[in-house]
Amino acid sequence: MHYSVNIKSLQNFESGKKYRAAYNIHVNGVLHCRVRYSQLLGLHEQLRKEYGNNVIPAFPPKKIFTLTPAEVEQRREQLEKYMQAVRQDPGLGASETFNSFLRKAQQETQQIPTEEVHLEVYLSNGQKVKVSILTSDQTEDVLEAVASKLDLPDDLVGYFSLFLIREGKDGGCTFVRKLQEFELPYVSVTSLKNPEYRIVLRKSYWDSAYDNDVMDNRVGLNLLYAQTVSDIEKGWILVNKDQHRQLKSLQEKGSKKEFIHLAQTLKYYGYIKFDPCITDFPEKGCHVIVSAGNNELNFHVKLPNDRIKEGSFKVTRMRCWRVTSSQVPVVNGTANGSGKCEVKLELAFEYLMSKDRLQWVTITSPQAIMMSICLQSMVDELMVKKSGGSIKKMLKKRHNGSLRRSDSQQPVKSPPLLDSPDPNREPIVKLSSKLTSVTLRGISTSNSANDLSGNNFHGNYAFEGIGDDDL
To answer: 293 and 389, same structural domain?
Structure first.
């Protein structure tokens, strides 16, 4: 999983003779917390004591005299680079010191005291699981509480994750993001102050081969079955009349495993479908529906002449990708020209179209970050296979290493960071050397005319800065 932290100067004001500034910290493009320089300096000192000066990146020094506006902006840029450098270090970014700082800052920013509350977590079929937690409980605590309420075995908890979604009035849902270890789910969802947002439990892997591990358990089978039925009902999985008849027959018989096995053969099984958006491929301004799954991004494109074209971009043929944002004026009746702006997010990836031709493809979508997260998690699974590791052991290790209330001093275990805001940085070179030998054993590659992939391509990828809009 990748992370990007952006800091934006929030406010400047005179306090006596001191010029002070507060900073918004944006994580993956979303406002996470608000802090002051002194708080970040305290974090730096704590990390320095634990890890030493040789590991910790440079921190912008204190100033004796009052900062000018230009110096405040310079410090903002330096703090942004510092936070990203810490997050990109596998040890520092996964440390309990760093993550607990972000969690505490999130709670203080939203001014939510630590107390016991009831949180509703939804299953794919709409069923609610109400768990008793603390407002200060992190994501793994909440996931564990839900698993305990459902009687899901410990060795299967790592196969599932909590996702923040937004329910549409038409019954559809928009995936906002996967909840991370540095945030507090209760604070994240309640701070939005919108009943359309909810937390949902879903499987967190891509390879359907791992379904067998989950289906060996009754609770795991029920969760996977509910998600499969839901994805079919939403139209995410394509079903023809004959297949629909077979599925309905299995459903009536209560044959859940057979139902899932049949669903695994259907198009787009295990994919996440995103809201309609815009792409510049094959032509600029095309409307597209993007789906992520089977180590690819699938495009269902409506061309300017209203023709529909479908194609897929394999993750193993992407040399790099990045998420960027820009401020664009709001054009909506009287708002046009009023100076109001909104953030436009874009996911762009460089793709090997043919043996000697690379081309950038851009997707403009509010879900660009979620798409990028999906791409990276696919690469994570491929790298586990490439190294001969077991995804089951990796997920079990992640869960067993997660923070619990009684073990608050233990470090949070998480996969190493695999991205960089600068494609020329050393971490990218290291990642490239790892991915060059990735093989796709057991993964089918389509040779149809509609498939844009062809031969596999192995390369590195980068993640560039996300915008830091004011809220």
So the answer is: yes
Average pLDDT over all residues of the chain: 79
For 82-92, what is the mean pLDDT? 87
What's this model's pTM, rounded to 2 decimal places?
0.77
Cα–Cα distances in angstroms (integers) from residue 13 to residues 16, 19, 72, in the given order:
10, 6, 11
- Residues 470 and 343: their CA atoms lie apart, in Å, by 10
- The answer to whether position 228 is within a domain reads yes
The total of structural domains in the chain comes to 4
Sheet holding 128-134, edge to edge: 128-134, 116-122, 197-203, 160-167, 173-178
219 and 290, same domain (yes or no): no
Same domain, 35 and 149: no
CATH number of residue 304's parent domain: 2.30.29.30
Q: d(Cα 40, Cα 62) in Å, to the nearest integer? A: 12
Residue 364: give the domain boundaries.
Answer: 271-329+342-400
Q: From residue 425, give the alpha-carbon distance in Å to each of 88, 335, 372, 421, 422.
A: 11, 42, 19, 8, 6
The full DSSP string for 104-129 is HHHHHHHT----EEEEEEE-TTS-EE
Contact assessment for residue 351 and residue 313, using Cβ atoms and an 8 Å cutoff: yes
Please, which pLDDT band fits residue 337 given cuts at 50, 70 and 90? low
For residue 303, the one-letter residue type is L
pLDDT tens digits, 411-428: 223 232 223 333 333 332
CB burial readout 168-177, b (16+ within 10 A) else e: eeeeebbbbb
Predicted local distance difference test score (pLDDT) of residue 340: 67
Between CA 312 and CA 315 the distance in angstroms is: 9
CATH number at residue 222: 1.20.80.60
